[in-house]
Amino acid sequence: MQKSLKIKAMNRIIKIIFLDILKNKIILAYTFILAILSWSSFGLEDNSAKGLLTILNIILFTVPLVSILFATIYLYNSSEFIELLLSQPIKRKKIWTSLFLGLSLSMVLAFFVGAGIPLLINAPDRIGVMMLIVGILISLVFVALAFLSSIITRDKAKGIGIAIMTWLYFALLFDGMVLFLLFQLSDYPIEKAMVGVTALSPIDLARIQILLQLDVSAMMGYTGAIFKDFFGTSLGLIISFLLLCLWVFIPFFVSLRKFKSKDL
Amino acid sequence: MIEIKNIYKKFGKLEVLSNVNLSFDKGECIALIGPNGCGKTTLIKSVLGMVIPTKGDVLFDQKSILNEFEYRKNIGYMPQIGRYPDYMTVGQIIEMMKKIRNSHENLDEDLFKAFELEKMFDKEMRTLSGGTTQKVSATLAFLFNPDVLILDEPTAGLDPLASEILKEKIIKEKEKGKLILITSHLLSELDEMVTQIIFMQDGKVHFHKTIADLLDSTNEKKISKAIAKILKNKSNEQNN
Q: Cα B75 from chain centroid?
């Protein structure tokens, strides 16, 4: 009885946050842009492979950027709301988790309506479903990273700066560094180590998972073959999905621990 | 009802509260006074669990509040500066709080009526003046009939009429046997309301006395005069 009451209280807060975000014009614009990009890229070519590549790029660049920026700014703008809730009989954990679930739910919904539906209609196969799942996971990962960057500092400008740097790092810098290492150490047998290195970036995990499904790994040379050996097996696939899930949970739980001891 | 035990709080190197020990009982109206930055708000926020003490404990009905939240059902809090989501209307805020507390019965709408908030029901919070925001804060603090009311500078920013309404309400609630905790700088206002007084300075409790004690020991009739006398004596002691 008491348990169900607690869950009800949580649902009420999630509902308030969720409805508040849905009223936000940015999230509507994001959905709309995703929809235009996806429908037009599927519509232009008869071959759905090119459409899939466009959506892959959306998942790797646009989704992370919008998720982390929107969530960070939303959290800073909710500081009054959070303060108000804290003086009420609500657990701190519940406040932070509700914010996370509300934000995640709306980012996932935006991605699903914008890119997921065209994906399922135009590529209703294993690859389509897989891209949908990866896109949703990437949305969640970057919402979680936004929670981490907004708890690190009270300063809104600094927090948004950290969010942008995080995105830049994972979307561009990390790849550059991996390539650099690959060339510098090309005399050594580091291919197997590279598989481990990809686990350090959620965007790379997503990229490799999908590229291998698209069967363009032949273009990736010997390293590609090693990747295929690992990620191509169902065990590798499960491990890489679990790694993506860890990228959601770890940043969120670190931020939750910090929020529990924060002074307001 | 509330006991504060050996509380210390540091913000970085700054020690805001240092070994504070206090206890508050039902039916009392307690004024918390002291110069700016002496730790009054931090003390209040520690009781609310918004600030987590570096050391020490706060007991509410003999139970520690650390990592607890249910006890806040029994507390109404009016912050010094109420901060609310900008784009929510007064009506939405009040409705939201009712939903969060999940209580639609036993609501105390006296202040809501007295402040004529229904006229502002559709106004967004960001368009409200400081005083009107205070009225909303006060209404929310009293709305759920809590046993304990914590009011941080309740009358600052309110016009004379509104602050008179609020004072009457505070006295009425005190007579019902509730515990009321007020911080204030306006000593002249406290005379009619408070039964005990706590004076804080530099994060320490300087004294905690009943009003009768305070007036007796200083031979004064008004709180403001009595406090002034104590402070004067103290500075004389320091000079000698």
A: 11
CA dist., res. B167 & res. B173, Å (int): 10
pLDDT along chain A (264 residues), means of 10: 60 85 90 92 79 85 94 92 88 92 94 93 87 94 96 93 95 87 80 81 87 66 69 82 94 95 85
Residues of A in contact with B45 (CB under 8 A): 263-264
Which residue of A79, A90, A262 is in closest CB contact with B100? A90
Asked if B188 and B167 touch (Cβ cutoff 8 Å), the reply is no
Separation between Cα atoms, residue B79 and residue A85, nearest integer Å: 13
**From B10, which residue of chain A is nearest by alpha-carbon distance?**
A263
> How many structural domains are present in chain B?
1
Chain B hits for A102, CB-CB cut-off 8 Å, are none
Maximal CA-CA distance, chain A: 65
- Identify the CATH number of the domain in which residue B15 sits: 3.40.50.300
| Location of structure tokens 């309404």 | B165
Q: What is the ipTM of this complex?
A: 0.84
**B214: helix, strand or coil:** helix
CA dist B148 → A1, B1, B177 (Å): 27, 9, 10
Domain limits for position B233:
2-239
The helix/strand count (H/E) of chain B reads as: 8, 10
